Write the structure tokens for this entry.
Amino acid sequence: PRTIDTGRRMEALVFSHYMFVTRLQSPTIDADFNARLLVSIYEQCEFLYSPDHWRRFSNWGTFENSGFADAAVMFPEFKRSQEWLREIFFRMRTQLHLSYDADGMHIELSPSYHAHELKVWCDFVRLTELNGIANPWPTQNFQPSPRDLLKPAAMALAYVVTPTGAYPQVGDTDRREEVDYLHFLAEFFNNAELKFVASRGREGTSPAEISRAFPETGYFILRSGWGNDPQTFGDQTYLLFDATINKPWHAHLDALSLLMTAGGKDLLIDPGRFTYNDGPEREQFLSTSAHNTIVINKTDQKKTDAKPDARWKFFEAFDYVQAGRNQGDVRHERSVLFVKPDYAIVIDNLKGTGRNSYDQYWHLNPDATGNVKIENEGITTPDLVLASSLPISAVSIEKGAASYAYREKMDAPVARYSFSADGEATVMTVLHPRSDISETIRLKSPGNNNCGVFLVERRGGTDVLALRGGSPSITSAGIETDAELVFLRRSNNGSVERILTLTGSYLRIDGKILFDSFGRKIDISSAGRRVTARGLNISKLTVGLPGVSELVLNGEQTKTVMQ
């Protein structure tokens, strides 16, 4: 038999024996059958005890040991049970080390497998505690307890849960995957943050971090907030930026993909897994074109591709993540700027040798089928406005597929932007949740640009995003700076309401200095009356933003210098 099947079968056998023999004392199970069943359980434990039957480098290693661990605890009368227990405690530590990165995220890049492996070991630890069984391994130095080993994975799982109360469908994860196990984890760890996520804000306290980076794995979770109750929890905006490696078996070819949830609905989706059967259907759901990223020269990403390099900066009013990867002679860098809580801007920079073709995909919720329109030079659904710097002639609305449960699929609309470029190309995409059908967004580029400057015209005013690119400075749209990126929000009356500058030493707007760090490259973010500044060795800083009364410098509140 397959070792994984033996492990899973043993789970059922052990607890069936406990229920029908020990608890119910069922008359249909006679002594002869009971003896034969016990012999079978013993023989399967011996089979799984063999080092040759422990496949430690994947989730199989955990699932092989799931029933084995149950039997070692539940049948102390077996004369080898103590040897089995010693082996199980050793395998648990080894398996957790191999299955979860240091940031707590699962190496196979599927929340489903993250949860299932965690459940096996949490159930084992709970079972040993109920039966008064301690780790039989003596240690010569301090070792974390089983609960301490398990907690980082539990907390990481809580962070990926979407506002709709589900796991995102990255990797081989179904949309209908149960998240009820979070309730057990909340009680198991007696953790108020886990309780808050499990109950969608009914109980507990919200996690300390709003947005969370998992750099070892490559997931970046961006949120507008956690809310205070089920309604506000569900209404939050959520983005998952995928800068993971493609190699694990349950991962897809989806580097630099993006998911989005807002207003209680999944707006940009991952189509899911659908099947494990080899063939065109499996290939379709694994493919790069089945994800919200860019296909380069009509070629899928590869399992052997290197993990994208990434950097991130989180502020009170903004989140920014950038990651890049190479495919052939093309370098693709994608940046996501989340203007909290309103919308996201995606910046795709593609730099290649010669002429290259690109296809940018955006997979929309199946509920949008029949309601995707091209209007105001953008794409709209009842819940989303998608505006691109590419001409509207580059877009086509196609029929895709989504799978919420294994071997079930449905039609789902896909927006595809197709274009070619010589050398370098930059594409800007605005992803704006739509609260009502009258909401429109326009993305424009003003004339006489010496750099990438884009205007996002919204109901409440105009936002400006400027990219320095290869230029030494930005001098356009009233902006003067040496920063690599500037975001500026103007109200309808022209006043500046919010700014973000990354890696710059000064910023002038309409000739007025808003900040000057006198040659030190820093990051500046403003939100209301507060300005946050971050950078190395800031010895002098002038802030000229109107209405500011508070400056937070590298995490420490200080007085502002108004000018």
In short: The first helix runs from residue 3 to 23. The two ends are 77 Å apart (CA to CA). Residues 446 and 454 are 7 Å apart (CA to CA).
